[in-house]
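Operator note (shift B, R.M.): manual run for Secreted protein requested after the automated queue skipped it. Running by hand, logging everything below so the morning shift can see what happened. Input copied straight from the record, untouched. If output looks odd, do not overwrite the archive copy; leave it for review.
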Amino acid sequence: MSKIGAVRRSAIVGFATLALGGAVAGEASAAGEQPAKPASPAEPCGYLGDGTYRHCDGGTGSTVMLDVQDLWGSIYHYCVGPGVTDLQPVIRWRIRDAWWNGYVGCQPGYDGPA
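Run finished. Output pasted below as returned.
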């Protein structure tokens, strides 16, 4: 993981811990989307690697928009709900990193190129 990716992940984990307060098991996404997998309390929040992202919402049920970077550096938008979401099925190339871009309250699922 690059230094920038590590800093982004640290910031996301720190924000989730302070502002959102803890972990919640995954819930089903909107109709037509893959349901989020239940999350283990031992897993960190943020990008977990291998195309998966864990959104810790503290029980609010919030959704957040991610910037997802593929192997070639292209950025895509993907909205996730609480729990662990597999981002890889809709991104053509291998995912290198994913981070929260500050947007809250989106419709879960792929939202296209940035």
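Quick read of the result: The first strand starts at residue 46 and ends at 49. The longest helix spans residues 3-20.
Leaving this for review. - R.M.
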